[in-house]
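Ticket 4471: requesting a sanity check on a complex prediction with flavin mononucleotide. Repro inputs:
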Amino acid sequence: MANILIIYSTTDGHTGVICERLRGVVEAGGHDVTVARLDDDPSIDLQPYDKIVIGASIRYGKHNPQVNAFISRNQIVLESKPSAFFSVNVVARKPEKNQPETNPYLQKFLKQISWQPQALAVFAGKIDYPRYGFLDKQAIRFIMWMTKGPTDPTAVVEFTNWESVDEFAGRISEM
Ligand SMILES: Cc1cc2nc3c(=O)[nH]c(=O)nc-3n(C[C@H](O)[C@H](O)[C@H](O)COP(=O)(O)O)c2cc1C
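Returned structure tokens:
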């Protein structure tokens, strides 16, 4: 049995929902899982955990810079244990961009950091127009219009493939 930390960065909460799904599957396999939000505990001590998973969502082309800073600060510990990273974005709703090798945000991110996680994943996120402010709503509608996604300003659409989240949970358990 391993003691696993899943730490995540989110703006609208969906990455946290994915973490809870991972927790459910990994715990069902007999492991202990702690889920923490990076904002709440940026100086969390990684040393007590056997495996570390970091998850982050994309906003205007980037993960929160706090994620890069967290990885740099903890590089040595991260390299000493099995570790994994996943990115959440809506470009990943496209089948040709839903793999770590084909998702442009994840590929760009990996070039910015020197940590090399054992397991990588990318998950399609959620569009929740009613919760966005005016400017964000218009920006996302425009991007969706350009990329043939939903533009109805009342739409709430979850693109996440939960089977692929469960499959990643299996890889976390085994790494
Ligand atoms: C203001 C804003 C900007 C976003 N920018 C991007 C983007 O550049 N590329 C992308 O693929 N998804 C983008 N998204 C979609 C988010 O990645 C998606 O909604 C994700 O589920 C958010 O996760 P969170 O709720 O954990 O923050 C954006 C969403 C918002 C609200």
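Notes from triage: The pocket of flavin mononucleotide is lined by residues 10-15, 57-61, 88-91, 125-127, 132, 136, 140 (CB under 6 Å). Leaving this open until the requester confirms.
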